[in-house]
């Protein structure tokens, strides 16, 4: 395969023509719009490919022993290139060049410091994931919402997400007091289809009195703790200054931020309607990779089959797009159960059944006649 420099003004074909041309170099350079030196080069060269510009001999001032020392310093001290050059010139070889040391590091695979950091060698450490739980372990958090044009102050979005199924419930409040958190917990308990066993929140005053008590421990007298106890729910707190413990709900809040930033809302009611619609879409239609590409509601339905005892009510999936099958009405005079004419259920008093019939599959239809199983439990010709 021929290699041509990407910035070359000549091609192998034109180079061959220049080599074979008997015209003066001045005329050749004007014909191909190239310099006189370029024309002379391809006139005297037998091959038509670009040659490497790398020097035939790489001169370096570092001996093999010094190169080994520089490489070992790089591995042990993790020095950046400029610092390594300074150390090399100061203690190893005053004539060492930055480009020479850089070539040495690239040649030996030591150019990237990130690859030399502890923990990067060998197998990567497995990423920490949330411990597997059955449905009933909820994460709760609060997200600030932007102030809408028709609002005098900003509002707050309370979010709850189930660890096992990613089922989400959210509601907007005008404040973030303990009264709002208690009301949100009651609404979550009413909406959730399974038993809530555990709750994980941060250490905000809306959820706990951990940092307002003398011993910096929750007393259990907070309104939210009392509501959890009344509902037989274990309330857990994330460690201070570790928001990643509640990372599942934080990631969902990131989704909400994208929705809010990408949409221009004219009012608070419009924002609330959009978030409610997104909650339905997320729960019923957005597949999650962590759930095996199932939506949260589909995951709930599969859990209900495996663990029916933890569910309080049936799980219903939001209806998809309506698909209306072709409908036919029976055109046959149908005898009634007692031998008399059957009266149509739609209110007519005639002798035709008129009931909706289920069409047969095309392969079951004998010939051109369309047959359907009528409500009178007989096979009859039908009409639209």
SSE string, helices as H and strands as E: HHHHHHEEEHEHEHHHEEEE
| Residue share in helix | 25-40%
CATH superfamily of the largest domain: Ribonuclease H-like superfamily/Ribonuclease H
Structurally, the number of domains stands at: 4
Widest β-sheet, arrangement of strands: 3-2-1-4-5
Map the helices and strands.
Layout: H1 12-20, H2 25-32, H3 36-44, H4 64-77, H5 81-91, H6 98-107, E1 137-144, E2 156-162, E3 168-173, H7 178-191, E4 198-201, H8 223-230, E5 234-237, H9 247-262, H10 268-284, H11 296-306, E6 328-330, E7 356-359, E8 371-373, E9 379-383
Parallel strand pairs: 1-4, 4-5
Antiparallel strand pairs: 1-2, 2-3, 6-7, 6-9, 7-8, 8-9
Helix pairs in contact: 1-3, 2-3, 7-8
Could you characterize the architecture of this molecule?
- This protein has 384 residues and is α+β, with helices and mostly antiparallel strands.
- The protein has 4 domains: 1-53, no CATH class; 64-116; 137-310, 2-Layer Sandwich (Nucleotidyltransferase, domain 5), CATH 3.30.420; 324-384, no CATH class.
- Helix content is 33%, strand content 11%.
- The strands form 2 sheets. It has a 5-stranded mixed beta sheet with strand order 3-2-1-4-5, with helices on both faces. The chain has a 4-stranded antiparallel beta barrel with strand order 6-7-8-9.
- Strand 4 (198-201), helix 8 (223-230) and strand 5 (234-237) form a beta-alpha-beta unit.
- Helix 1 packs across helix 3 (36-44).
- The longest helix is centred in the C-terminal third of the chain and has 17 residues, at 268-284.
- The relative contact order is 0.07.
């Amino acid at each position: 395969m021929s290699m041509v420099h990407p910035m070359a003004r000549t091609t192998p074909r034109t180079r061959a023509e220049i080599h074979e041309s008997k015209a003066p170099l001045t005329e050749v350079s004007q014909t191909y719009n190239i310099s006189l030196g370029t024309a002379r080069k391809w006139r005297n060269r037998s091959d038509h490919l670009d040659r490497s510009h790398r020097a035939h001999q790489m001169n370096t001032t570092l001996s093999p022993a010094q190169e080994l020392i520089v490489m070992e310093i790089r591995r042990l001290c993790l020095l950046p290139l400029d610092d390594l050059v300074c150390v090399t010139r100061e203690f190893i070889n005053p004539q060492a060049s930055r480009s020479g040391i850089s070539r040495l590091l690239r040649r030996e695979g030591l150019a990237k410091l990130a690859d030399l950091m502890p923990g990067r060698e060998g197998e990567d450490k497995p990423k920490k994931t949330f411990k597997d739980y059955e449905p009933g372990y909820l994460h709760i958090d609060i997200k600030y919402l932007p102030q809408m044009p028709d609002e005098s102050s900003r509002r707050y979005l309370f979010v709850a997400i189930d660890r096992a199924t990613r089922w989400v419930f959210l509601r907007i409040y005008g404040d973030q007091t303990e009264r709002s958190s208690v009301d949100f917990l009651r609404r979550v308990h009413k909406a959730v289809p399974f038993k809530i066993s555990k709750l994980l929140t941060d250490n905000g005053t809306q959820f706990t009195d951990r940092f307002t008590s003398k011993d910096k421990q929750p007393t259990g007298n907070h309104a939210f703790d009392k509501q959890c106890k009344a509902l037989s729910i274990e309330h857990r707190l994330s460690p201070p200054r570790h928001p990643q413990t509640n990372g599942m709900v934080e990631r969902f809040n990131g989704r909400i931020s994208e929705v809010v930033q990408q949409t221009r809302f004219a009012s608070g009611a419009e924002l609330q309607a959009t978030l409610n619609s997104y909650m339905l879409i997320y729960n019923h239609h957005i597949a999650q990779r962590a759930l095996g590409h199932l939506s949260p509601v589909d995951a709930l339905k599969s859990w209900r089959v495996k663990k029916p005892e933890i569910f309080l009510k049936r799980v219903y999936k939001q209806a998809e797009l309506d698909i209306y099958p072709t409908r036919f009405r029976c055109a046959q005079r149908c005898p009634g159960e007692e031998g008399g004419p059957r009266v149509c259920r739609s209110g007519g008093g005639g002798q035709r059944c008129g009931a909706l019939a289920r069409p047969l599959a095309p392969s079951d239809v004998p010939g051109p006649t369309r047959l359907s199983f009528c409500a009178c439990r007989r096979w009859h010709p039908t009409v639209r």
